[in-house]
């Protein structure tokens, strides 16, 4: 099973257009949601090999638009309402999405500091570099290589 994050893993939101980036959608307030380079090829690699759960601290409406863009609507989606509110952030916990920690679970998230520590002790973490909209980014290529190495073991 793969638990997949969205923000800064597959997408990012900015308020200024970034040339040569792929826009997923924009809002009237100026927010522009961009697709990370190589996101589709990474998703194609993991699709069919694992059950996928999308888990984000973003609001549900926002997460639904992104999962629809990537063709992930068939997979369970957990959003901010399934996170634990902390003082300055939302914390993810497998207990909030009714999943038992296991060595067979792979967490793909650029922000492991926002996960319950006990989940990271048991599960396998693949932490891509945090993506901030650079069109020349190759973080998901590196992540695909890490994923392939993990599958060989």
Question: What is the structure about, briefly put?
Answer:
This protein is an alpha/beta fold and 153 residues long. The protein has helices at 39-46, 60-70, 117-122, 139-152, and strands spanning 2-4, 11-14, 22-26, 32-35, 52-55, 77-78, 84-85, 90-91, 106-108, 124-126.
Keywords:
alpha/beta; 153 residues; 25% helix; three-stranded antiparallel sheet; 21% strand; five-stranded parallel sheet
Determine the fraction of residues in helical runs and give it as a percent range: 25-40%
**Spatial strand sequence of the major β-sheet:** 6-5-1-9-10
- The tally of strands reads 10
What is the number of helical segments per DSSP (H or I, 4+ residues)? 4
Shape: globular
Terminal Cα span: 16 Å
Order of helices and strands: EEEEHEHEEEEHEH
Oligomer: single chain
- Our estimate of the beta-strand percent is 15-25%
Backbone structural class: alpha/beta
- Rounded to an integer, what's the Rg over CA atoms? 15 Å
Q: Overall pLDDT, averaged?
A: 95
Low-confidence stretches: none
Q: What's the main sheet like? A: 5 strands, parallel
């Amino acid at each position: 099973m793969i638990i997949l994050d969205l923000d800064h893993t597959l997408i990012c939101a900015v308020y200024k257009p970034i040339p040569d980036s792929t826009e997923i959608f924009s809002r009237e307030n100026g927010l522009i949601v961009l697709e990370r380079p190589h996101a589709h090829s990474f998703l194609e690699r993991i699709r069919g090999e694992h059950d996928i759960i999308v888990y984000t601290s973003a609001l549900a409406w926002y997460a639904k638009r992104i999962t629809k863009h990537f063709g992930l609507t068939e997979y369970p989606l957990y959003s901010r309402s399934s996170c634990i509110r902390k003082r300055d952030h939302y914390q993810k916990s497998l207990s909030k999405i009714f999943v038992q920690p296991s060595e067979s679970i792979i967490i793909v998230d650029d922000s492991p500091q926002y996960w319950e520590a006990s989940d990271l002790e048991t599960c396998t973490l693949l932490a891509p570099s945090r993506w901030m909209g650079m069109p020349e980014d190759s973080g998901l290529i590196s992540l695909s290589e890490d994923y392939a190495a993990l599958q060989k073991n």
